[in-house]
Structure prediction request, 622 residues.
Amino acid sequence: MVYKVGIIGFGKIAQDQHLPAIRANPNFELTAVASQRGLKPNEAKHTFTDYREMLRDLRDLDAVAICTPPQVRHTIAREALEAGKHVLLEKPPAATLSELEDLRRIGHDMRKVVFTTWHAQYNKGVDIARDTLAGRTVKRLVVTWKEDVRHWHPGQQWIWQAGGFGVFDPGINALSIVTKIMPQPVFIKQSDLQFPANRDAPIAAELQFSTGVEGADLRAVFDWRQTGPQTWDIEIDCEGGPLMKLSLGGRRLEVDGEIVADESDDEYPQIYRRFEELLASGQSEVDEAPFRLVGDAFMIGRRVQVEPFQD
Amino acid sequence: MVYKVGIIGFGKIAQDQHLPAIRANPNFELTAVASQRGLKPNEAKHTFTDYREMLRDLRDLDAVAICTPPQVRHTIAREALEAGKHVLLEKPPAATLSELEDLRRIGHDMRKVVFTTWHAQYNKGVDIARDTLAGRTVKRLVVTWKEDVRHWHPGQQWIWQAGGFGVFDPGINALSIVTKIMPQPVFIKQSDLQFPANRDAPIAAELQFSTGVEGADLRAVFDWRQTGPQTWDIEIDCEGGPLMKLSLGGRRLEVDGEIVADESDDEYPQIYRRFEELLASGQSEVDEAPFRLVGDAFMIGRRVQVEPFQD
Prediction:
């Protein structure tokens, strides 16, 4: 079966990741692109500046991949589901938790697949870490996610607005790995959020977690002010071993000092392979756990004002 | 069937509301109280300063009502469920959304009832409002929840700490009515939070909602600085009428200017009647919608610093 898919929102993530992943997978055909700016790849038969026309005109479109900024994802996804299309959602899947819950419900009611993608989860090292941790007690978890916002988000203003998530935009990738690999549910017990004086979103955050195990040391540091080498590491220490380190955002895994996974980036091809499986089985996959932790971090977060940030 | 119930946390809400509601209901027997301060009512056969002793010693206890501050509810509820007790949770049901999701899962796994109570929902006027709104389009919703924190929370420090919810402690009562009565799901589109310079929780909030209906005016104002008359009102205007006003926190309902409900406070007796139904059927009722809106309000909230608040 070849699924006809349309991309809605044709910005950087769609061009860099979704387009090549769809091209490389013989079970998907890129039928259409909807882009407000009128951008288009060569192979899309149909292009639209208004996604509503796409949903209305292309009756045989099977699915859409929604790659817009998060603020408009819910409205688009709702209309796509109501038009009978399956929906793949870039991360974060919506602007709020209530919107995501609504999409889960509509997908269920319409019998359409809703797929929340968390790209950092699609690494072999992450799977191995999860399998290694199963049944063990984690006594130490240290997440260090430090990158240079000027490099990764040059001039982007929406990430600094209220609802733009700030440093949680990359941080949620770390949280999506944590919720996938940890053998027990993880709760946020303390959250310190650093807001630049001139911005409405945090530039750094420190989180303390708990799984209910007494004496465990579980925490995360997110920082968007890291120049020079960038760090996307998760260290995990289990009772009775082993000592594990995931680095490069999940692509490399060391277990007791030995490298057991070190892959080139295969995240989006894996996402589309998973989407195939879900479409074939008609099952949705709505994983709200990473997003819920972000909501919790803001809800119980202590706000500290730090120096203004200039692009 | 008479259910043996234990109260955990015997502060103001337990003494003022749970105790008389249990006393007045012949299907419940107050068997035990666990209070760190050693407080006890006359009729409780057993009293404990440590709830863990209660859970361990009283094998025939059917259920517990958890009336502690929210920060410790999850741990207590988890242990109660694992000890085979049904659980009633005061509002808010946990410190974070992830904790509540965990309790839902454990209740399901242990086949025990988990009941999230939102006391403002248990008013006849709220039920009538919900029934009246079914199938209609709301074009205007204005929530005004203004009270004097010094009167209602004299000297309470935890409400001002990060994770103490601030003005959302009363505001969540309004949200629990909104989510119950509105005929469509409600999303928060904009949130402005006022933090006193010397506090880590908001003293006032303005929320803008959407249900996806274009041009509708849906909003809430919460304020903890209201001296004099206190206001707990919700006005609702439907396309083609009627015009409704819920006041006194849900106890009075006017429809097109006519009072159709004006009850004395029956919230907690109704909560225990509902608990009876759930226990009899073995069904949980985990309604996270009001709590999720609070998480959303903090996550997308814009923070404004206002003048320091002194008790």
User: Anything to note?
Assistant: Residues 56 and 83 of chain B are 8 Å apart (CA to CA).
